Amino acid sequence: MLRVVYEPDHRTVVLLTRRLPLLRFRRPEYLTEAGMGQVEWRIERGLLVSAAGRGEGYLRIQARAGEPAAGKGDVLVRISAEVANFYPFLRGGGWFAQLGARFYNVTQLRIHVWVTYGFLRSLARLDLPTSSIGALAPDSE
């Protein structure tokens, strides 16, 4: 029921159709350094984002390589996922904010955690779809 629509300047998580955009992210921003890689998507808008949170929040995934295990060629890679400054529409505002926060914690927050764990498991298995955008593909020249 959920799918991601890839465009050159944004990614949108939709419910069934493009007419129901749940979350829209700006194009990913990549950072790489020795032993570390990171991708960050700024949250732009969507039905699940409150007006106060548009353009403020982000989703960041970071991978850091540790030291190789003694006598082995294996390297432990630590993956972290972070969502910051995300203000869900369901949380509400004003007098409803406290009740809305509880409602969000028992519904959407748990769903987000499950989806994140599933994604991280797919990373561990290297079970990733081919990029439809190809932003990091080597130049053909």
Describe the structure.
The structure is a single chain. The protein has helices at 97-106, 108-125; strands spanning 2-7, 10-15, 17-26, 29-33, 36-45, 58-68, 75-84. The protein has 141 residues and is α+β, with helices and mostly antiparallel strands. The longest helix has 18 residues, at 108-125. β1 (2-7) and β2 form a beta hairpin. Strands 1, 2, 3, 4, 5, 6 and 7 form a 7-stranded antiparallel sheet that branches. The chain has one domain. The radius of gyration is 18 Å and the shape is globular. It starts with a strand and ends in a 16-residue tail after the last helix. It has 2 helices and 7 strands.
> Taking Cα atoms only, what radius of gyration do you get, to the nearest Å?
18 Å
Termini gap: 39 Å
Tally of individual domains: 1
The number of distinct β-strands equals: 7
How would a crystallographer describe the biggest sheet? 7 strands, antiparallel
The unreliable regions are none
Number of helices: 2
**Mean pLDDT across all amino acids:** 81
**What would the principal axes of the Cα set say about the shape?**
globular
The helix content is 10-25%
Coarse structural class: alpha+beta
Give, in order, the helices and strands.
EEEEEEEHH
- How much of the sequence lies in strands comes to 35-45%
